[in-house]
Amino acid sequence: MPTRPSASRRTVLRGAAVVPVAGLGLAACSGPGDSGSAATPTAPVDLGAEGDVAKGGAKLYKDHNVVVSRDKSGTLKAYSTVCTHAGCPINKLQGTTLICPCHGSEFDAVTGKVVQSPATEPLTELSVKTENGRIVAGPAA
Asked: What phi and psi values does residue 75 have, to the nearest 5 degrees?
């Protein structure tokens, strides 16, 4: 006659079932096609022509994990596009709203503020300037 597994064995079996689920959760934090190495510039980066960002608009520079926006008065702002929720690189800009592919957090590219959770912290602001008609962003820019 078959015997019922002991309580300690049932616990082990339940714990084993949790491992694959946790692994899937970690994989979900990496964006589609992302190697998980999201980083913002560690030195000033030339992003392109100053005219690339219109007044009241924003431009996403995916290769550098930076977004640059220009308010209606013409002032430039730059933010890291590494999501403050789980560190995923943000790869989508709709108008002036950044959308994280991992968990759907949304940020205002003009202010860096969260407009939709699960993120609760704003994006990290970066120094930005124009130099010889070019946009330069990053530390010491």
From this structure: -75, 130
State pTM to two decimals.
Answer: 0.72
Cα–Cα distance between 64 and 82 in angstroms, integer? 10
From the CA atom positions of the chain, what is the Rg in Å? Answer: 21
In one letter, which amino acid is 56?
G
Tokens of 1: 């006659």
CB 64 within 8 A of CB 5: no
Average pLDDT over residues 30-54: 73
Coil, helix or strand at residue 3: coil
DSSP annotation string for 23-56? HHHHHHTSPTT--S-----SS-EEEEEGGGS-TT
Residue with tokens 């690189």: 89
Q: Which 3 state secondary structure label does DSSP give 100?
A: coil
What is the percentage of the chain residues whose pLDDT exceeds 90? Answer: 65
Interatomic CA distance for residues 138 and 42, integer angstroms: 7
